[in-house]
């Protein structure tokens, strides 16, 4: 039932629990409140997704990061809803204060996380270090503020026009969920690709504080004391000033943060639709820093260790027939470089997910020199596609060799590329006497993950020969799974269809390399780390 109220007489003090004195009709006022619910919901979801995405980019473990951020936020939202009960008598002022705080914290959250990551040396252990603590703290604070929004907005709508609780809740939640849909779609398709995380978060905060301030100072201004109006106005302007200043300085901030993370010689930094790519060094000057290729903060290839990694990955697989070679991943062209060093190679197919990486590998002087301009060789054919999807649709002659130059089983986004189903598809495109080389992560650092890859290959019908190649200790070890402080070694599995493990030898015509000369001892070193009783990893039951 809808109740009517007599407006308060002119000159009366602001009514804090009675009907609101609006400058517009009640129907229009209620519509404006629902519009504000819509906008605030969109902003709130952008904050959540921004925290999840940022943490996932820097750690690679998207499942854990999403679980932590969302569970902490949902818990905090419940606490925030309870806390908002104390603000009901001052719903308009309380909502204005909440939106200003939320815009400031949410808008600056990406910049704060990146700053702590850049200047404290990374994420450290599983839950050690400032960035992880800050991630949880931001999730908690943002959740508390988001949780306080709905109860306060409910109070404001009821003060505009009293209606049954069920109808009011339905209207508010409908606007809230539609706003969340828009925010959820805007983040990956608009904010992230066109503005980036820092500017996107700052713009979201700006929209948030403007929407909240306009509702309170425009629609409910007569419910506020003069002091409250000025306080909220100054607070909103201060937040807008901070966000605008941060946006103006975001370019300089990003450059300074990148120098703190990657060193002073960053030559290129590109955010593609897949990842952030950073190139350092590699200019060829006397005493200059060697080339460094970083993908989402991880050293993918660089230093004097890079040839050791790619030679160890590629050449043992080329000991047999190798006229047709398939490289899964390897958009940097470094694995293709090693394949082309062997005579008898007629065709190399490279399947890479990120076209931005392929473009850099072709046109960047340092990276193209490092890969020997392999992607310009007429024998090399590059396809931009997801490796699993490409394998499902692959047709044509079988390959003699498949090189899986992939991110590593420790990165959640790449778990499907280390599954039994994936290796089953690889076996389908591999010749009966063909060989598969798999980078399976560091042996000493993650032996359980390494041997799970071996168990998964066996479940897919492969026999395996494990080996481990140490870095030379001249700098941070390169490779798809390298992070600061990781052990300086790489683990590989050479696999062949059937029950007979392939012979572990580099084959004739391989380049001189300490890594290849010591394959036998490296195999023994890997064998000493064996973990038994492990089950295969599948798409439905990943075990990494």
UniProtKB/TrEMBL annotation:
Family statement: Belongs to the spermidine/spermine synthase family.
Annotated positions binding S-methyl-5'-thioadenosine: 275, 352, 386-387
Keywords, ordered alphabetically: Cell membrane, Membrane, Polyamine biosynthesis, Spermidine biosynthesis, Transferase, Transmembrane, Transmembrane helix
Pathway, per record: Amine and polyamine biosynthesis; spermidine biosynthesis; spermidine from putrescine: step 1/1
Listed name of the protein: Polyamine aminopropyltransferase
Gene Ontology molecular function: any one: spermidine synthase activity
Active site, renumbered: 405
GO terms for cellular component: plasma membrane
Known function: Catalyzes the irreversible transfer of a propylamine group from the amino donor S-adenosylmethioninamine (decarboxy-AdoMet) to putrescine (1,4-diaminobutane) to yield spermidine.
Catalysed reaction, written as an equation: S-adenosyl 3-(methylsulfanyl)propylamine + putrescine = S-methyl-5'-thioadenosine + spermidine + H(+)
Any one of the GO BP annotations: spermidine biosynthetic process
Assembly: Homodimer or homotetramer.
Location relative to the cell: Cell membrane
Membrane topology, from the record: Multi-pass membrane protein
């Amino acid at each position: 039932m809808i109740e009517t109220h007599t407006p308060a007489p002119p000159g009366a003090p602001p009514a804090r629990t009675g009907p609101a004195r609006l400058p517009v009709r009640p129907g229009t006022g209620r519509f404006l409140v629902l519009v504000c619910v819509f906008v605030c919901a969109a902003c709130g979801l952008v904050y959540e997704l921004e925290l999840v995405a940022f943490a996932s980019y820097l750690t690679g473990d998207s499942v854990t990061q999403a679980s932590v951020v969302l569970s902490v936020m949902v818990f905090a939202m419940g606490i925030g809803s309870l806390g908002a009960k104390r603000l009901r008598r001052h719903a308009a002022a309380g909502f204005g204060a909440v939106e200003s705080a939320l815009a400031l914290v949410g808008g600056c959250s990406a910049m704060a996380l990146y700053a702590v990551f850049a200047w404290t040396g990374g994420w450290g252990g599983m839950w050690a270090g400032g960035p992880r603590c800050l991630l949880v703290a931001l999730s908690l604070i943002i959740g508390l503020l988001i949780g306080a929004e709905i109860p306060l907005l409910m109070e404001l709508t009821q003060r505009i026009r009293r209606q049954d609780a069920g109808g009011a809740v339905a209207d508010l939640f409908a606007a809230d969920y539609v706003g969340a849909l828009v925010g959820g779609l805007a983040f990956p398709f608009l904010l992230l690709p066109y503005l980036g995380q820092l500017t996107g978060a700052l713009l979201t905060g700006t929209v948030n504080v403007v929407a909240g301030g306009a509702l309170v100072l425009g629609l409910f201004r007569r419910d506020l004391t003069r002091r409250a109006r000025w306080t909220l106005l100054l607070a909103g302007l201060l937040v807008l000033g901070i966000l605008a200043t941060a946006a103006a300085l975001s370019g300089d901030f990003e450059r300074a943060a990148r120098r703190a993370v990657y060193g002073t010689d960053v030559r290129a930094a590109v955010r593609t639709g897949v990842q952030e790519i950073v190139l350092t060094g590699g200019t060829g000057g006397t005493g200059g820093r060697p080339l460094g290729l970083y993908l989402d903060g991880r050293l993918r290839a660089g230093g004097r260790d890079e040839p050791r990694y790619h030679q160890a990955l590629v050449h043992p697989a080329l000991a047999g027939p190798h006229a047709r070679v398939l490289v899964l991943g390897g958009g940097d062209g470094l694995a293709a470089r090693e394949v082309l060093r062997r005579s008898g190679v007629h065709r190399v197919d490279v399947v890479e997910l990120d076209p931005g990486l392929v473009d850099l590998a072709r046109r960047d002087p340092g990276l193209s020199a490092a890969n020997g301009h392999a992607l310009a060789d007429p024998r090399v054919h590059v396809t931009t596609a997801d490796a699993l999807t490409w394998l499902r649709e692959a047709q044509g002659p079988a390959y003699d060799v498949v090189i899986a130059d992939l991110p590593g089983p420790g990165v959640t986004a790449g778990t499907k590329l280390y599954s039994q189903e994936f290796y089953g598809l690889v076996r389908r495109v591999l010749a009966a006497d063909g060989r598969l080389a798999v980078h399976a992560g560091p042996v000493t650092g993650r032996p359980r993950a390494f041997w799970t890859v071996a168990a998964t290959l066996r479940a897919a019908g492969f026999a395996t020969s494990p080996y481990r190649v140490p870095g030379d200790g001249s700098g941070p070890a390169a490779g798809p799974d390298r992070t600061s402080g990781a052990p300086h070694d790489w683990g590989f599995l050479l696999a062949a269809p059937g029950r007979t493990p392939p012979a572990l030898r580099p084959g004739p015509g391989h380049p001189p390399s300490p890594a290849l000369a010591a394959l036998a001892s490296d195999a023994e070193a890997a064998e000493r780390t064996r973990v038994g009783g492990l089950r295969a990893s599948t798409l439905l039951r990943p075990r990494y």
